[in-house]
Specification:
The chain has 1013 residues and is of the alpha/beta class. Helix content is 31%, strand content 23%. A hairpin with a 3-residue loop joins strand 31 (644-647) and strand 32.
């Protein structure tokens, strides 16, 4: 909304303060600055406020606003006097205002840094979190304008407003003066205020999705009069699924005398329906969608599923139509799934909603599925159905113009009917938020992701989101850090989802293999080794094995403390006539289920070859009803078992098994992070053993990292009986799913005891000094986009954080080189610093171990004769560093994903093979330890082929210091330390490059707001 000419030209209308927000009940509203055009809206709003609320606002009866009041409350300079309004349908439902004051409480201008603040919320909208959202946004505005404190006077009886201030999480002081409560809030965000903000965000966004998935009534707008067509198909699917709510068919082309269609009431508009409709499914051509949305908004519809196509997938014109669609829907407080969506499904018995184009509603199950592609959604629904898996909910978001994977992840976290979250993503609108939400969700239930459009370098058609420039390998590493199970294909997603939804998490990587085919067992053994598991030699039951033999062998393996998971391999029995007998699958399935019926804490998977009915029988064994609960022994009282554990590169050690569990029944809750609780997963509902819960992954040949005992999420829990046993047609698929489960289980154990960000000694880190250097350097930068630092400037800045860079001295001629060497002391290195030769020892640009002047002069002559004149080569002299392993450490800031810390070996391993590991900043001590152990070439650091192990502790400290530097100072947008020589004792940084620039905006640290793409 543009300002009028009456407003000060020196303070233009701040349109960046405008924001769409999700309120506590899941509805949306718009927050924007109040302008002089809002006089009529303000008066209308005030007339709808109760006398009691007016009394609380003005401390006296105040039935109406005077013209002077209206002028004062609508004229602002957006610096010392600011007013914000919350609107729905263009009308005010709440307002907030601050006025800058001095120490005596009188109106003031900057540099006064305190303001008086006051709120007023329409009674009909109190309790929706309107005031809390306004406080977040007005506080952000105040900080932007240099205001550091809010002062407020509140009547003691105004408990709601006092609670808003008290619960905000800001540092505050309270006193009772002259019959009112005087509150002072420090507006600097605190850890508590950020936690409060994110907790509210989580509950509101989860509720907004829940309203879309569990409506009390549904209207299908665009239902055709004749069979067929999108709208009629959705109506048919709604009826076939047994939807428990009320259903309406809406089409403005219906005859006036048409009373029903397919047995449901038929109407020409929503205004003809006697009740408020909760969810509208829009299936009309794109040019008619605005009319349908307006009809929905004017009649109180809570949410929309827009199946109509013709939006951003059609280009720039369609993208603008899509943005207008979102603006229109949000103006009425509605959220949108779509456009170009496939629909939504909720299999809960109390809902049974299939508002999608899927002809058959999936069985009820414990898997939540979100996809940004209708075609992929169809494939996933079909694949899960064939494998006998049920879903808790399904959302196909199409162009995801509004509701996104982040919103659905918020819902999955809270949903007690979802044990495993499967997401097919083609774009990440807010990667910072996604990794934060994924980490929290993965701490209580698995999150499996397939990322499409990995290598296209552009956003998929229809997805108007910011494009991150981070390579896909980095995205994958960051997902792993957040506990996300990243797989490459939708087939792998289904494979992993089946295992995670039906089986407990493995306690370790030790795998028992048994079956009636030696060859299939060997294939499984090889696949385990390839995936980094520790398989035991396969147990061959021979082709004569009966189902009872399988049952006995499986029961024995499950009772064996030296294995953590079991893979059963099976081929058809061969009859006396030489023909395969494929009809005994049900018998074998029954035998396997009896073996696990004792409540095993180990996952079981089956690899079979053409055994008729086996996969179906194994899948059918887990009904949608809640199995009989079984109490699990608390971890503190659980028995332990020890046994040998061997594996490649690990030697032999003892394993300790400890039973732990969280959650109650199929719909129970387990302790989750933050302020709420989250449902238990199958892994939680069954006891799990915990051998060797190492805090860092082992690199081949690396010493075992320190261990941290697992802490149970709850001291006591109940667990359910056996679930479905997943069956796979190939050993590689079963093993890959199991390997992902093993890695996820290890991440869960480590996440239970988070890593720490160490506090370095005060005298080794000079944060204020670094800030002063950065400010001075940016002040002299001719380019507003920033500037690279010189070698000396970079050394000085890094030195403020205890990162010493070996000095270099210029050597423009042989005499200068000799003088520099004398100053540094022999032996020295002679290097070129020309960009095309930097770090290229293979081209002859580096000469090492020059012991005296004669050797230096000879090397200087050879260098210039071979590569060019000194003015072109820019040679430098540097003291020799201790021998060690050359590595490279980098940190960079991506506007979408945030600061990323990277590590690899210098040269070909990282540059040619891409063997680089990544972690988000700020990195913990565990992140640093994992970082150096997760590259494929890590054995080189730990004594590979008899070499001396290097000082990895010093390397980890260097990583943590760099992490803190870029976290403390977001203006440091890029740092490269290359090479970093890691010796048996200590590290030496030989080269450093640093770039400074104004930091990118951090949307995740500001007040809550919905993205506008």
């Amino acid at each position: 909304m543009e300002p009028t000419p009456e407003q000060s030209p020196h303070h233009a209308y701040p349109d960046h303060w405008e924001a769409d927000v999700v309120l506590r009940d899941g509805g949306t509203a718009r927050i924007r600055p109040i302008t002089t055009d809002d006089a009529a809206r303000l008066v209308s709003f005030y007339e709808q406020v109760s006398d009691e609320s007016k009394y609380y606002r003005f401390f006296a009866p105040y039935p109406r606003l005077s013209d002077r009041d209206v002028h004062r409350f609508t004229h602002h300079d957006y610096v010392d006097r600011v007013g914000l309004a919350v609107t729905i349908g263009g009308e005010f439902i709440g307002t907030v205002r601050f006025d800058r004051i001095n120490d005596q409480g009188r109106p003031a201008s900057a540099p006064a840094d305190e303001a008086e603040v006051a709120f007023l919320v329409q009674d009909a909208h109190q309790g929706r979190g309107v005031a809390s959202a306004l406080l977040e946004h007005i506080a952000a505005v105040a900080r932007e304008r240099g205001i550091r404190r809010f002062a407020a006077e509140v009547l003691p009886a105004n408990n709601k407003m006092i609670k808003v201030f008290r619960d905000a999480g800001y540092t505050q002081r309270r006193s009772f003066e002259d019959g009112s409560v005087h509150l002072t809030l420090d507006l600097e965000p605190t850890e508590k205020s950020l936690a409060v903000q994110r907790g509210r965000e989580q509950r509101a966004e989860a509720r907004s999705v829940q309203r879309l998935l569990a409506p009390g009534s549904v209207a299908v707008i665009g239902t055709g009069r004749a069979p067929g067509g999108v709208g009629r198909t959705v109506l048919r699917n709604l009826l076939a699924s047994g939807y428990t709510g009320r259903t309406y068919a809406v089409n403005r082309a219906f005859d006036e005398d048409l009373a029903s269609l397919d047995g449901v009431p038929a109407h020409r508009s929503l205004g003809e329906i006697d009740e408020r409709v909760d969810l509208a499914v829009i299936a009309v051509p794109a040019h008619r969608v605005p009319e349908a949305v307006a009809d929905c908004g004017e009649h109180g519809v809570q949410g929309l599923v827009v199946l109509s196509a013709g939006y951003a997938e059609r280009g720039a014109e369609g993208r603008e139509l899509q943005r207008e669609l979102v603006r229109q829907a949000r103006s009425y407080g509605m959220r949108i799934i779509g456009p170009n969506a496939f629909g939504v499904i909720n299999t809960a018995e109390s809902v049974r909603l299939n508002a999608s184009l899927a002809p058959e509603s999936p069985a009820r199950g414990r898997i939540g599925l979100f996809t940004q592609s209708g075609a992929i959604g169809i494939a996933l629904l079909s694949g899960l159905h064939r494998r006998g898996a049920g879903l808790s909910s399904f959302i196909s978001a199409g162009n995801r113009a509004d509701v996104s994977g982040n919103d659905v992840l918020q819902y999955f976290f809270e949903d007690p009917d979802t044990d495993v979250a499967l997401l097919y993503l083609e774009s990440l609108g807010n990667p910072r938020k996604f990794t934060r939400l994924a980490r929290r969700t993965a701490a209580v239930k698995p999150v499996v992701v397939v990322k499409g459009a990995r290598h296209s370098g552009s956003t998929p058609p229809g997805h108007a989101v910011p494009v991150s420039r981070i390579p896909d390998a980095t995205v994958s590493a960051l997902m792993r850090q957040a506990g996300v199970i990243r797989v490459d294909t939708v087939t792998e997603m289904v494979d992993a989802g089946l295992l995670l939804a039906g089986q407990p998490l493995p306690a370790g990587p030790r795998v028992a293999i048994l079956g009636n085919s030696e060859s299939l067992g060997l294939l499984t053994y090889d696949a385990c080794l390839a995936e980094g598991l520790r398989p035991r030699p396969p147990i061959d039951l021979t082709t004569a094995a009966s189902p009872q033999d399988f049952r006995d062998a499986l029961a024995e393996a499950l009772a064996d403390g030296t294995c953590d998971a079991v893979i059963v391999t099976a081929i058809p029995w061969v009859g006396e006539n030489g023909e395969a007998e494929t009809g005994d699958g049900e018998v074998l399935a029954a035998a396997l289920h009896k073996a696990v019926a004792g409540g095993s804490a180990k996952p079981v998977a089956v690899v079979h070859v053409e055994i008729g009915g086996l996969a179906e029988a194994l899948a059918a064994a887990s009904s949608t009803a809640a199995p009989r609960p079984r109490t699990v022994t608390p971890a503190a009282q659980a028995p332990t078992a020890t046994g040998p554990a061997t594996g490649p590169g690990t030697g032999t050690g003892a394993a300790t098994a400890t039973a732990t569990a969280t959650g109650t029944g199929t719909g129970g809750t387990g302790t989750g992070p933050g302020t709420g609780t989250a449902p238990a997963t199958p892994a939680d509902r069954k006891a799990s053993t915990t051998p060797e819960a190492s805090t860092t992954p082992e690199a081949p040949g690396a010493p075992e990292a320190s261990t941290t005992p697992e802490t149970p999420e709850t001291p006591e829990a109940t667990t359910t009986g056996p679930g479905r046993i997943p069956a796979y047609p190939a050993a590689e698929r079963a093993v890959r799913a199991l390997a992902e489960s093993v890695k996820y289980a290890q991440w869960r154990r480590q996440a239970a005891v988070p890593g720490k960000i160490p506090e370095f000694l005060d005298d080794t880190i000079d944060e204020p000094g670094a800030a002063a250097l950065i400010e001075a350097q940016l002040a002299t930068a001719p380019d507003p986009r920033g500037r690279p630092l010189t070698h000396d400037e970079a050394r000085e800045l890094l030195g403020r954080y205890g990162i010493a860079v070996l000095p270099t001295l210029p050597a423009p001629d042989p005499a200068a080189a000799v003088a520099a060497a004398a100053r540094l002391g022999y032996p020295v290195a002679l290097k070129t610093t020309a960009p095309h030769l930097r770090h290229r020892a293979d081209l002859g640009g580096v000469r090492l171990d020059l012991a005296d002047e004669e050797a230096l002069r000879r090397a200087y002559g050879e260098l210039t004769d071979l590569l060019g004149k000194p003015a072109e080569l820019l040679p430098v002299i540097q003291a020799m560093a201790p021998r060690g392993v050359d590595t490279v450490v980098r940190a960079s800031i991506d506007a979408a994903a945030g600061a990323v810390l990277s590590f690899g070996l210098a040269g070909a391993p990282s540059e040619l093979l891409g063997d680089t590991a990544h972690r988000l900043v700020p990195a913990t001590d565990r992140d640093a330890a994992e970082l150096i152990r997760s590259i494929r070439a890590a054995p080189v650091l730990f004594g590979w082929r008899g070499s001396a192990p290097v000082d990895t502790a010093a390397l980890e400290e260097l990583l943590l210091r760099l992490s803190r530097l870029v976290d403390d100072h977001p203006e440091v947008v890029s740092v490269a330390l290359e090479p970093v020589v890691v010796a048996p004792h200590g590290v030496t940084v030989l080269g450093a490059s640093v770039r400074l620039a104004p930091p990118p905006a951090r949307g995740d640290l500001g007040p809550r707001r919905l993205p506008n793409y």
